[in-house]
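ingest -> validate -> predict -> emit
validate: passed (alphabet ok, no gaps, 390 aa)
predict: started
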Amino acid sequence: MLRDLALLFLKLGSVAFGGPAAHIAMMEDEVVRRRGWLSRAAFLDLVGATNLIPGPNSTELAIHIGHARAGWRGLLVAGCAFILPATLMVGGIAWAYVRFGALPQVEAVLYGVKPVVIAVVLQAVLGLGRSALKSPRLVLVSAASAALVVLGVHELVVLLLAAAAMGADHLRTSDRHPPTAVLVAIAPASPLASPLVHGGSTAAAATGIAATAATAPAWSLLFWLFAKIGAVLFGSGYVLLAFLRSEFVHRLGWLSEQQLLDAVAVGQITPGPVFTTATFIGYVLRGPAGAVAATAGIFAPAFLFVALSVPVLPRLRRSRLTATMLDGVNSASLALIAVVAVTLARAALVDVSTIVLAALGALLLIQYRINSAWLVLGGAAAGGLLSVLR
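emit:
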């Protein structure tokens, strides 16, 4: 069982381009459709749970799936296996960057991969929608959530509003669940709020340590700085960019603006979680030891938060009130994925060739159930071929 988990998430970590929405879509294809390890409803519960805690959503989903499949050892195996391929790739690119001072050219590969990723996300939205949108109310909540995200409302606020709306509707139609039931059901999750509550003191402590740092920072300091970011970061890779810029460019002055942009670009062009940007920065600042420390630091909170939230989900489902609220979170999570899919499509479908690749990918995936990993590899090959022919 552990071997199956490791092999699956090593494969996904090696081909999962396109950001969290695409990663989640590929996991749904493998774990729900192909292997039947989880029902769609259980999978959606895990997606909703990852959206409510800080950190990289797709990595946390992998960790959750590992626990659901093989307990605490599965939690560690799935998470580490998903992270490892991207970490090794980014570390190799960082070595070349430090040695030669430039990034490799991968635009041709991404040209073909991005349209195929759109097809993978579309398939997941259609499949998960059948489980998430179980009533007209949930359809309305999902549509409203998508509208709020488009208007610029923070993702976490949207999720909480969706939960509150469904909870209020349930209380309006039933007097069997007083409002205090919400607090009783979610009380065990209270430790999850501690990184946000104490974020200010954490930052102050880091500032004090950084003031004594040498030009090449200690690996322990790198671990601490990246753990702080991983513990409080909600949102997309653009939010990660803002945190890194504030910390390493403005406050500490360890990176130039160009180095930071190069680091984020590497996180974007490699498969797996974009948080492996930390691997690149760690290597640039302190070589292999810095890469390991930075990677461990930024991902450690994800393992901790998932471990803390695992006992909470069954409690939420046992209460009819909180189960209804979780349905609201799931419908809003689906809306977030759909909005990201539209954004990705606008960036990926730039000409006739990319539109054809996306349509062909959707046909192969939905009609013929081709493995999404093979589709991504096929898209990369098509992108390389088209660049030669142009």
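The radius of gyration is 21 Å.
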